[in-house]
Amino acid sequence: MTRSYNIVSIPGDGIGPETNGAAVRVLEAVAAKYGFEPRITEYKAGGSAIDAYGIPLPGETLQAALDSDAVLLGAVGGPRWDMIEAERRPEQAILGLRQGMHLYANLRPATLMKELGNVSPLKDPGKIDLLIVRELTGGIYFGKQGLYKSTEKLFDGTRKGTVAFDTETYSEAEIERILRRGFEFAGKRRKKLTVVDKANVLATSRLWRKIAKDLAEEYKDIELDFLYVDNCSMQLVSRPASFDVIVTSNMFGDILSDLAGQITGSVGLLPSASLGNPGMPGLFEPIHGSAPDIAGQNKANPIASILSVQLMLKLHLGEKDAADSILEAVRKTLADGARTPDIAVHGDEEDKSSITLVTTEEMTDRIVANLE
Ligand code: IPM
Ligand code: MG
Fold it and tell me: Does ligand 1 come within 6 angstroms of the Cβ of 129?
């Protein structure tokens, strides 16, 4: 019997339909080659769902996601919906899916591909190959928030006026389950785990440290260290090749993963996998946003979305050969010189002759043609 998977595709907004469309094309092509069947159904979320239904995450989209094997998401958001009140903003679709599907572990691998030449903005990046394990359903993203009018004053008598607050909250159980994922991924890689926090200031970070130290007893083969987030962002620039697995909170992971994306060339290259407990559906999306400035222009880099399919096949659906085939095809396409504008930057003039500027569709065509 053919292996068959129920995939929910959510193109979203901005460049989302273009990059997610590319991902779906690659998925269908690789499936035909490797003898499995993706049954893909499309649903709306984000701005396009606000336009169609008045809300960012329709119940039927969440239900379909929960009933699926995996979700492929483009990107959501754009200036058109920026004036909407917080609870109905397009970003609530992503947050609602993450929370509603209990996707607490977000994996964001960042690798500097040698096929891209000197695309890193760093002078001497070395061999960057790191994995950020970001906690995804807790912390300040989901803590208590509010807005109120204060009658208090600052020291010089100025009225405080309106006050807004966000709260960072983490429980032992939430910290332990994400740290375990970090240790486990480190075990499958170079056995180095860095816990990134702000333990010199935050109570939540101090709890992360304590639990990490306790767990280290169980994972004796893993070299564990700790870095403050400010120091980590500096070291990602000064010695990126020394990192293996970074495990961190929701907000720190959000920030550091954009940085990790940029030092490997472009955020347009970085995929992500969001996972819950084993056996539950996962969600796969590029780390980049909806890039409204280039939407509809056939300019976006589809590689982050295409590599999200690769992660889905490798980490989640057990289609390892098909996953490897996608990675090889992407590498070959880049080695042949195909470049979307975001990665068509070069330090020396000589290289320019060997690269070809391509559209989103041409990049996808070439990757599909290179699948083996
Ligand atoms: C990301 C994005 C999201 C986040 C936004 C769109 C809510 O920046 O996936 O990194 O902050 O998690
Ligand atoms: Mg982000």
Answer: no
